[in-house]
Amino acid sequence: MTRILYDTDLIGDDLLTIIAAAGLKDVRVEGITGFGRRIPAVERAEIAALLCHALGLRGVPTAGGADRPLLNPPRKGCEACDGPITSFRQRMRERAGREASGDILPDPRGAVPLIVETIRNNPGEITLLGTGPFTNLAQAVLQAPDIAEKVKEVVIMGGTAWTPGNTSVVSESNVFTDPHAAAVLFERFPAVTMVGLDVTLKTLVDESVLASLEMKDGGSARRLVLEMVQGIIRACCEVQLARRGTRAMPLHDPLSLLVAWDPSLVKLLPCDIRVELSGTHTCGMTVCTALSRSEAGARSHRVAVEVDSRRAVDTFVSCLKNVFDAVD
Ligand code: BDR
Ligand code: CA
């Protein structure tokens, strides 16, 4: 069983990651913590709670965390998926109000206590999955350094080793948004698995995938989830067409979940990873130095350098199918 504590900015493919987790065998989501921008973190956490409710994932605590990076000014980030996400929230709120359910409110403890307590209460059991700026994770490990030794592993979507960045020429968005937090992450946790642009940009889905996600029965909360999925995939394909000339969406965050579940989907290279914090043009660069056999050990970071993208995409699509084929 892979027990995931998921820290995320919940902006698009992050939500697809939660949905994929619900369709993945032997994965349990132990909690979801949010980073906020445009939509504050606590509202992002509410969206995660509504999504878990719609998916029938009961008892998953969700909590809001930081609304800005450790030191840098806030960045607005990509707004492309805000429409489908806020529409899902509105329609789920109406439904949930009618059902008067108690498990749709974010956990009042907030993100950092939730992260720290979950790891301390389950030593050696929890996989930390990070797919947003790493502010909450950095704050957690700075406040409670012991969690670095108590997690089972840390897997992130973020950074890029040898592929150009997607936010600056050399920097990936999650790292670029809060480079200081990313630096803390790589310094304090002894073995981080970095699933970055080197592999996520090779793992693409296009809108044809939507044809396989039809639902037979209508009217359920799951249908609202499906409509959000359709909206997110269409919006992300549109963005990629404008940015890269290809109408296909990279599975950034879902791939990191899949790697946490089955690392054989990628080839992992032991590396020393440092985050550039002072370069005028290179701030947020993840500087990855491959380690020799004698230097590498159980406690070295690892960078995903190759991916079986066919198998990753097929697994992702079958997770979604499992979710939408399930009866409410
Ligand atoms: C990362 O940035 C976010 O926008 C995506 O959800 C993903 O985590 C890609 O650079
Ligand atoms: Ca993300």
Briefly summarize what is shown.
Helix content is 42%, strand content 18%. With 328 residues, it is an alpha/beta fold.
Give a written overview of the molecule.
- The strands form two sheets. A nine-stranded mixed sheet has the order 3-2-1-4-5-6-11-9-10, with helices on both faces.
- It has helices at about 15-20, 40-55, 80-100, 110-120, 135-145, 145-150, 175, 180-190, 195-200, 220-245, 250-260, 310-325; strands spanning about 1-10, 25-35, 60-65, 125-130, 155, 190-195, 205, 250, 265-275, 285-290, 300-305.
- It has about 325 residues and is an alpha/beta fold.
- The longest helix is centred in the last third of the chain and has 24 residues, at about 220-245.
- About 40% of the residues lie in helices and about 20% in strands.
- About 50% of the residues are buried.
- α3 (about 80-100) runs antiparallel to α10 (about 220-245).
- The structure holds beta-D-ribofuranose and calcium ion.
- The site of calcium ion has 7 residues, from loops.
